Amino acid sequence: MISASTTSRSQVIRIGPAEARFEGWCERCLDDPTPQSLGLRWLRVDGELPLEVDAGLTSCRRGHRIAVRRLGRLTDAA
Question: Considering its fold, how many domains does the chain have in total?
Answer without folding.
Answer: 1
